[in-house]
Every structure is written in C-alpha cells, then in structure tokens.
Specification:
The complex is a heterodimer of chains A (108) and B (117). With 108 residues, chain A is mostly beta strands. Chain A has strands at 4-7, 10-13, 19-25, 34-39, 46-50, 54-55, 63-68, 71-76, 86-91, 98-99, 103-107. Chain A is globular. Helix content of chain B is 0%, strand content 55%. Chain B is built from no helices and eleven strands. In chain B, the strands form two sheets. In chain B, strands 2, 4, 5, 6, 9, 10 and 11 form a seven-stranded mixed beta sheet that branches. A four-stranded antiparallel beta sheet of chain B has the order 1-3-8-7, with no helix packed on it. The relative contact order of chain B is 0.32. The chains are: A mainly beta (108), B mainly beta (117).
Chain lengths: 108, 117
C-alpha cells in the first residue's frame, strides 16, 4: 500500500499570499496518477487536480499541481478567502487507492 | 449535472451490518466506463477508500476491510449500495459515495453512521 505523507500539517497564511503544499509517496505513483482535493468544513471533498497537474472542470487557474514519481506539490498562487480549507492528496495508480492525512490552510 | 445522495441508518449496533444506498441523478449507473465508489472519513484515520464497482458489476475492495464489504448496483433504480458486516466502533465515520473516473470526481454530501449499542 502506498503511504502518502503531506506537509506541513497546518499552513497559516494571509489572503493574497502563495500556498505551497507537499505530498510525498512511499513509493513511485504509477502513471503520476495523483489527485488533490479541497474540503471545506461540513462539505465533501472537491476534486481540484488529477494526473498530478491537470485542473478539474471549473477549478480556477490559481490552483496548480506539479511533480512526478514520489514528490508532488499543490500551489495556490494567491489565496482567496474561500481557499482556507483542508487539502488532501490521493493516489489512484495502484490498489488500494490511498489518501494523505491532509494539510490545513488557515488564516494567519 | 451528475448528483449523488447517500441514504441509510445513522446508527448501527455493534456486530450488525451497515447498509447504505447511493442514488444517482443526472446520470446513469449503466453508462459504460463508469465506476462508482464508496469512501469513508474519520477524525483519526482520515479518508479511506472502501471499494468500487464498475458499470458491469465488477468490484474492487480495500483489503484492509478483510472481506466485510459488498458493493452492488441496482440499475433499475439507478442506485448502488454498500454493505459492511460485523461493524465495530471503529467503523463510525462519514460515508461518501462518489463517481470514480480515475480520481473521485463527483461526491455525495456524505452521511454520518455511528456504531453504538
């Protein structure tokens, strides 16, 4: 089973700042099949990025994903108020599909 | 637009079977190349993939659930279902259904299921 480690656990930033979130896999993610999700309180996760770097439908271009193999990054170029949430990475290249424990982006 | 809605009991007794249904609207469970899945979320263990079912009925389960899981699809009702047997307090979670297009693309709102006597 691939273990995904996200860092930092919490990121305290101000609106307008840049957020950089990391996801490291315990072994190489096949096909770079790595997704990122956003979860706001009381809501289901929402798909942001798939295939490590492709934005899902309707996702603003301030969200971008990069990386390959075992190291992946989600970048939010300029934080908007609605971006303060928890972000999860997930690999779907091998079974069982696994998630990281999340990075919380909160307001500084 | 595709929408999913979970339904089922919010409370299940230990050792009994948890049963949930996901109703699909704005799409069809019979559409080829569609997978449907279940995920759960707990404060302690985070998000966990439970299993997925293909439109033709082929199923894929998380081995960590040790054979306690069954996912099925009822195309006549445009629904798919989850059964989890021999539940314990550790199965208390928010359960989500979702479409599976590689990643989990569309999610239901989730339903909290508590295991308690």
């Amino acid at each position: 089973e691939i273990v995904l480690t996200q860092s930092p656990g919490t990121l305290s930033l101000s609106p307008g700042e840049r957020a950089t979130l990391s996801c490291r896999a315990s072994q190489s993610v096949s096909g770079n099949y790595l997704a990122w999700y956003q979860q706001r309180p009381g809501q289901a996760p929402r798909l942001l990025i798939y295939g490590a770097s492709s934005r899902a439908t309707g996702i603003p271009d301030r969200f971008s994903g990069s990386g390959s193999g075992t190291d992946f990054t989600l970048t939010i170029s300029r934080l908007e108020p609605e971006d303060f949430a928890v972000y999860y990475c997930q690999q779907y290249g091998s079974s069982p599909r696994t998630f990281g424990l999340g990075t919380k982006v909160d307001i500084k | 637009q595709l929408q999913l809605q979970e339904s089922g009991p919010g409370l299940v007794k230990p050792s009994e079977t948890l049963s949930l249904t996901c109703t699909v609207s704005g799409g069809s469970t019979t559409t080829s190349n569609n997978y449907w899945g279940w995920i759960r979320q707990t404060p302690g263990k985070g998000l966990q993939w439970i299993g997925s079912i293909y439109y033709n009925g082929n199923t894929y389960y998380n081995p960590s659930l040790k054979g306690r899981v069954t996912i099925s699809v009822d195309t006549s009702k445009n629904q798919f279902s989850l059964q989890l047997t021999s539940v314990t307090a550790a199965d208390t979670a928010v359960y989500y259904c979702a479409t599976v297009a590689g990643p989990f693309q569309h999610w239901g709102q989730g339903t909290l299921v508590a295991v308690s006597s």
